[in-house]
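Researcher: Structure prediction, please.
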Amino acid sequence: MGSRTVTGPRPSLTARNDGGRMSAETIEIPAPETNAPVNRRRASWRVRTWLLSAALIPVGGTAVTAQNTEGMVPACFRTGGGALEICRDGSEAEGVFWAPPPCAFARGVQILRLGSGSTAGPLQVVYHGETPLGDRRGRESCEARRATDPMDSGAVQSGRNLEQLATTMPAAEPRLWETQAEPAKPRSRRVRRGRDAATEPEPETEFGVAARNPTVVVGRDWAGEAYYHVFLISTVGTGDTARRVQIQARTYDFESFEVRSRGPDGGVAWVPFTDGAGRRRESVAPPAAVLDEGGRPVVGNCASERLDAQGLSGSISVVGQLYHYVYTDVMPEDCSEPPPRRRTALYLRTSRDLGAARVWSAPRTLMTALPPGLMVRAAKAKGMDRWALSYSCRRPANAPGGPVPDICMQYSADLSIDALAALKLFSAPVSAQRSPAYLGLRSGGDGSGRFGRVAHYWMTDRYGNLDVPDSLSAKSGFLTWLDRLAPRRDGSAVSTLYGRPVYWGTWTVRPVATR
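Model: Predicted structure follows.
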């Protein structure tokens, strides 16, 4: 992508609700910030990568200080059981990863290194983007779009980059996208009274694909498997009975995909979705829900309105040839609460074989009473036997900029699950979502001090564990996130999703210096 500068008015920050009917634009709109705005000015930004430097003053609580090479005293916080620290000294690299055209967007951008060991392989980029237009017009010359319907905003896009272009979005194509089959009349009642819908697959789980929130990890390559597996989230059901369900696809090359379905004998059937050129086949069997070891579908804990359905978003990491699926879901006891008040729990499921008929273990609860709508990612840390955990948060009130949205990062004391579960994510009160473990991101925003840092992901190796581009080998991680408040490159405010930029940033963790 060439360099250019685009200046436009500050976008509208009002969530749309046309005619009293919710639209897909309302999904995951950041909560209003409570900090006082800084100097108001016309928002502008450059559509290219750059290095920013801005000194941040220390904050209280658990923060410590350390002198850097330029003589500044950055704010640092300790993590990893007190043995590590991350400093917000303004030297971390940040920039624009992609400034999409007005008919495109990207959420949850995962960058996957396909090589192994000393062999630097290509970088595969996978993300949740827009459903392709029927006429397949080029995106650079397309008209502005808005997600006015859930079916208008769910596709898996993928593209491949060279290592040298790790900080730019590659040319990508929609590979899996949602379709709504006309459901056949079930042979039995749709809802069985007196029985929790999560206890067995209902016919309705066979219909509707929402190719959202892709999470990619390699199959058992140590046993000769050549597939990569893509886990997705579908929303099934109507009215206030909608529920999230996990579905699955696999691929050799990230161009043609097979979707997990159910064969005539009730077993697993892998059905081709594409013909190898990104074109959808006409006859696609409906996907089947991923099952756990007890034969139960992996579904969200709570039923809700279709656009309010929550749960199952997370990440998958391979440690010791064991897959660890760490994700958030609503606490079951909060299902009767309105969606904005439903607290979140963090769960773990494990697997030895992603291609098995019953993939995941039963869920293990790691944390409870977390804020509603929390996004959490977990993976083995780069070069360490520790878990790294990133999550959406807000800075403390006395931090630079006030309690603005940020992304927080913590490391566990070791690689045990108990050490991961022992991390404390937020200061009291937890509902305020404030943490001293924030990274101090600087990119994005609407120019008035408000930011929309959502749907973050990071760069991983093929096992879902932290990796970085070779050009940033001294860094500990590489993040991407979507800012739904930052100006679009065309200067308009047509959509709070389409056309909004995706940013990238790094962080560095180091042993606490002996003083």
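Model: Residues 1-73, 180-209 have pLDDT under 50 and may be disordered.
Researcher: Thanks, that helps.
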